[in-house]
Amino acid sequence: MLFKVEMDVNVPVGYDQERLEELKAAEKARFQDLQAAGTWRHIWRVVGQYSNVSIFDVSDNARLHELITTLPLYPLMDVRITPLCRHPSSIHPDDR
Amino acid sequence: MLFKVEMDVNVPVGYDQERLEELKAAEKARFQDLQAAGTWRHIWRVVGQYSNVSIFDVSDNARLHELITTLPLYPLMDVRITPLCRHPSSIHPDDR
Amino acid sequence: MLFKVEMDVNVPVGYDQERLEELKAAEKARFQDLQAAGTWRHIWRVVGQYSNVSIFDVSDNARLHELITTLPLYPLMDVRITPLCRHPSSIHPDDR
Amino acid sequence: MLFKVEMDVNVPVGYDQERLEELKAAEKARFQDLQAAGTWRHIWRVVGQYSNVSIFDVSDNARLHELITTLPLYPLMDVRITPLCRHPSSIHPDDR
Amino acid sequence: MLFKVEMDVNVPVGYDQERLEELKAAEKARFQDLQAAGTWRHIWRVVGQYSNVSIFDVSDNARLHELITTLPLYPLMDVRITPLCRHPSSIHPDDR
Amino acid sequence: MLFKVEMDVNVPVGYDQERLEELKAAEKARFQDLQAAGTWRHIWRVVGQYSNVSIFDVSDNARLHELITTLPLYPLMDVRITPLCRHPSSIHPDDR
Amino acid sequence: MLFKVEMDVNVPVGYDQERLEELKAAEKARFQDLQAAGTWRHIWRVVGQYSNVSIFDVSDNARLHELITTLPLYPLMDVRITPLCRHPSSIHPDDR
Amino acid sequence: MLFKVEMDVNVPVGYDQERLEELKAAEKARFQDLQAAGTWRHIWRVVGQYSNVSIFDVSDNARLHELITTLPLYPLMDVRITPLCRHPSSIHPDDR
Amino acid sequence: MLFKVEMDVNVPVGYDQERLEELKAAEKARFQDLQAAGTWRHIWRVVGQYSNVSIFDVSDNARLHELITTLPLYPLMDVRITPLCRHPSSIHPDDR
Amino acid sequence: MLFKVEMDVNVPVGYDQERLEELKAAEKARFQDLQAAGTWRHIWRVVGQYSNVSIFDVSDNARLHELITTLPLYPLMDVRITPLCRHPSSIHPDDR
């Protein structure tokens, strides 16, 4: 089941840079695990922002909640979630 | 070059249904040509709305303008465009 | 899987009253079928508005899209959808 | 009398974690008392947010004010309240 | 039980003036009945707008819904409702 | 001359509680003086918020400015002011 | 007593031009009477808009309501009103 | 050349009061110089706010930028600027 | 003197196409005259919209008002105007 | 390829002034390099704000992202980006 997930990272002015690098490294590792598993299906950077647009493919809402709220950078994030579904005009039977 | 394109279709109450079906058929044909060409790279329906979230892969801004503004349903659409780029953490070298 | 669905019905000034009554009767019949099936799990009126707050319990996003967009009053509606999940503090194991 | 109550919890960056855990434990205890009493009739988590959607069933406005503003997490919350009433199409005579 | 009710009347350009006068006369009669009954406890005009700010005193939410949605001018209105309660600092024991 | 005055009190997380209690006591005393004088004609709490809706009856704009901006809690408040006037349909000649 | 009044004139596409010219002529005459009387104390055009920013000097709120809502172009206007008062730093004792 | 300039002063909770008084005194002196010169042509307080509505009369945009951004209170201000011009209906040839 | 002018053209559904083409031809001619004169200094299309971002170089506000409000497509436009000035870091002494 | 880039600089109250001057000097140097290279094609100050409107001319989205997010003042900025393209009515073949 597909969801558009948009994440903005808001780093407060004066935030500890070492702590931030730790969080970013942990975030990257978590992301790559989820990407390899096919759960975090797509990610793109938003030009000029510390933000991404992502597509998640999950079994249900509860799983999505657990994944998003345990991301290492989650305490610094604003998150917007939009449920999606396959488009009937698509010529790719497995376009996710 | 990648762009998120979000399209909302607003059909006025009382709009001619035959005309609408023609526009939708023409839109579907145009979409499938662009999808086959790899230009309209992804499309998803937004649940509960007459809206989609799409990813376009185009050579430049001018080409995107030409594609969007000549869509058959364009006169009934609100369109929001966001420039994207590849995310450096992605493990898929060709993730578009 | 649970979703909050908020529906506002916007009747244009001068809309044909007979047509509106037909749509409302068809909407009511559809609602009661879905309520009996446990799909449209809750509905409440918003005080002073032609709006409701509903809880849907569906198998997946695609099913929710199909249900909402085929409602008889859908062409007159604004719809807002929010994915929900069970709250871990709840003392009711089946609180949906 | 029914109200939709939407609560967003905003934890400032750097907030004392021990204090937060105390508030959350106290909030959970209060919630479960009110849920057992039938006052906090429903609660759902909003996917991806530290937010809930709740339905309260109270005798009057003043009682609702007292309940909400004395919640342990209230000082960290944004709250939106919407008065509701029973929907006439409902087939469940006691659907609250 | 008290509610602030704010009503904006939006008359479409070209609306039939005779019909409007009928609705306004019916609205005035209904208002005065409710004011005499103590239900529509206060009304003030918003300066420069076709809008009012009102205080309703009703037994419950369902009664308020019935009163507001059957007002003669309701089809031309935008309505915003806010639940209120007595302020503990008030020196007037019956200030409603 | 009547004005609707809406006040939201925003207490920063970690604000000194003793200082807050002093401000609230001073605010209450000032309010009761103004209520006794008929200037702060009505006050209601907004359910679930640290906010009130008030009606002021003052001789002119300058007097209202002086009253509002010298309230003890004013430095923590957001204030919205709307000029009102008597409604011609009112059956109470002195409804203020 | 001073108020900032901001007026936007919204002429629907296809509005009768002769009717519009009549309304504009009547508006101009009314404006010049009020300007001569010192009531409509200032008026400026907003660059690039069919809008003005005005300062009214009136005896009370009710008088302002009567003046604004009887302007010939009022049915096509959006109006925003802000109560003002003299600024204590002003070196002009009669700056209105 | 005329501009409407709207200034909101936002004093952070806990801001040094002595520093604030210095800034206000410097602001007042600067204002009175500019008012005497005819540049800061009008100023009014917004009732109930730490805000003003002003009319500036300057030779060009660059001069306005220099004046506004060097005001002593500018670091605490939100500023909104709207270009204005003379209204053709005005009966005062020099109404600025 | 420089201004950013953003224009959105809103063509109502069902608008007469011949009339629209006439307006667009007249708009183009007017634009090219103003561009040749150096007044309409820059114009860019906004990708995917019937909108442009322009830079005007005019002698004063009144001239800008006259130019914008007499554009052939003005009755179908929403216009937003922002006063600009030269940036002191620019290495081009005549960058307009 | 052209983009409108709007940058607002938000300096927190009490920010270290020496640090700010360093960032501004570094920003100016970077800007002048990019302006000399033709990449940062235009820049204008927004009157009365610590903001600019700029036009960037870059090879692709990824390059724009890299340029913007490494600006020395970027951590204090809000940035809004809008893709542009050449306007077909322009009489300047190289108007960028």
UniProtKB/TrEMBL annotation, chains A, B, C, D, E, F, G, H, I, J:
Family stated for the protein in its record: Belongs to the muconolactone Delta-isomerase family.
Family annotation (Pfam families): MIase
Q: Please report the stretch or stretches of sequence annotated as the Muconolactone isomerase domain.
A: 1-89
Which biological pathway? Aromatic compound metabolism; beta-ketoadipate pathway; 5-oxo-4,5-dihydro-2-furylacetate from catechol: step 3/3
Q: How does it assemble?
A: Homodecamer.
Keywords on record = Aromatic hydrocarbons catabolism, Isomerase
Which EC number(s) are documented for this chain? 5.3.3.4
Tell me what this protein is called.
Muconolactone Delta-isomerase
Q: Which gene encodes it?
A: catC
Q: Does the keyword Isomerase apply?
A: yes
Q: Does the keyword Lyase apply?
A: no
- InterPro entries tied to this protein: Dimeric_a/b-barrel, MLI_dom, Muconolactone_d_Isoase
A GO biological process this protein is involved in?
beta-ketoadipate pathway
Superkingdom assignment: Bacteria
* GO MF: muconolactone delta-isomerase activity
Q: Which reaction does it catalyse?
A: (S)-muconolactone = (4,5-dihydro-5-oxofuran-2-yl)-acetate
